[in-house]
Amino acid sequence: MTHSSYSEENNRALSILGESVIETWVSLRQLTKDIDVSPKDLNSLISEVSEVETSCAVDGMKLKLQNIVRVSPKTDPSTPSVVCGAFRAMFGAIAVDTGRADMGGSKFGSVHEQFAEVKNERERMRQQRTR
């Protein structure tokens, strides 16, 4: 993975596609669960999953993308925007390689949900210890 600070040939376009793939996955999943979801609630869900600092970069850090993205010597590869861009680019690349945006979204869903389950389990364990 290459960040724009490293080279003009980088993964920015894949990151843009990946963001769209992720937003589409969130929208389809929510509408499948609740077709009457309000536009405001749907937009909130999309924003929550797309949030650079609290969601996108967190998932990317768990995948250790900061260790593989190439950046210029002046750029910190663990900066949330760098990690998030790499994370999004990964799902954009899956969509391009398979020729299917839904495949990129499906892979995102698997990764994101797995990390959410781990987070929820840790929270349950922490609550049990404080009782």
TrEMBL record:
Signal peptide: none
Gene3D superfamilies in UniProt: Ribonuclease III domain
Domain RNase III: 1-99
SMART domains linked to this entry: RIBOc
Designated name of the protein: RNase III domain-containing protein
Species annotation: Ilex paraguariensis
